[in-house]
Amino acid sequence: MAATNTEAAEYNERKLENKVAVVTGGNSGIGRAIAERFHAQGASVAIFGRNQETLNETLDALGGEDESLAVRGDVTNPEDLDKLYAAVEERFGRVDVLVANAGVGKIRPFDEVDEDFFDTVTDIDFKGAFFTVQKALPLLSDGGSVMFTTTGATEKGLPGMSVYAAAKAALRSLTRTLAAELAPREVRVNAISPGPVETSLVERMGIPTEQATEELGKITEQQPLDRFGRPEEVAAAAVFLASEDASYVTGAKIDVDGGMAQV
Ligand SMILES: NC(=O)c1ccc[n+]([C@@H]2O[C@H](COP(=O)([O-])OP(=O)(O)OC[C@H]3O[C@@H](n4cnc5c(N)ncnc54)[C@H](OP(=O)(O)O)[C@@H]3O)[C@@H](O)[C@H]2O)c1
């Protein structure tokens, strides 16, 4: 059946008009694509990351200081998270959409994992994301949307990913718990699970980039869609989860992974 004019008009509206969104890791790769899509869909966006140069570049792409906010900090440092939310409160007064996306994809064979490596990865990927959400609660609007970036690696046994995949599996679990705990406030909590996506994560895996690309290529060969994903393809799912289109979706994980987890 053809859409009525009203339905078509609603479909064409910007999806995130009047919403305030915070995106950690919003200065690179997937997070940057999410921040840019949110901005294009009408949201006021705050990004958070460690690298001042890429924060500045991304802020420019988000309409500059007049329209958006960039805060420098580390998700493993509670005081930096406090600084983020103080700045967001002062500027926008609330958070409607929170994307706990900052993360590292470092890999290392199980027998070579030492305590430092274990702590670095779990502190950023699990503990950092955990407190990113907890510390946002006082500002988080009733009816808001929270999402974590997990990974298709939680669904497969991939060599070298013992710490990374487990930290992200913990986030998948947290997604379910928080969906239940925050439901009385009608806050929806979901996960987006990317497969291999072309970002600087590949260069930061802790192994030579060529080797990393080759290893990830072996994963895509097993997928129905045998290619790397693009950050924008992940961002499209984030817009859906952030918007009223996903008003009945919580506790879920959306795989944006070329079929990696399901086929
Ligand atoms: N690319 C993939 O294939 C893939 C697949 C599955 C899941 N993911 C997940 O997607 C998310 C985004 O990764 P990406 O691929 O877009 O990689 P990326 O381009 O390297 O971006 C990672 C982002 O996280 C930020 N970040 C890392 N550690 C941080 C810390 N301690 N404090 C604050 N910010 C921190 C980085 O900020 P700075 O640059 O300022 O350090 C950067 O903005 C990650 O959670 C990753 O695990 C990626």
UniProtKB/TrEMBL annotation:
Residues 19-195 form the Ketoreductase domain. GO terms for molecular function: oxidoreductase activity. The keyword Oxidoreductase applies. It comes from the Archaea. Keywords: Oxidoreductase. InterPro entries: KR_dom, NAD(P)-bd_dom_sf, SDR_fam. It holds the Pfam family adh_short_C2. CDD domains: SDR_c. Gene3D superfamilies: NAD(P)-binding Rossmann-like Domain. This is Oxidoreductase ykvO.
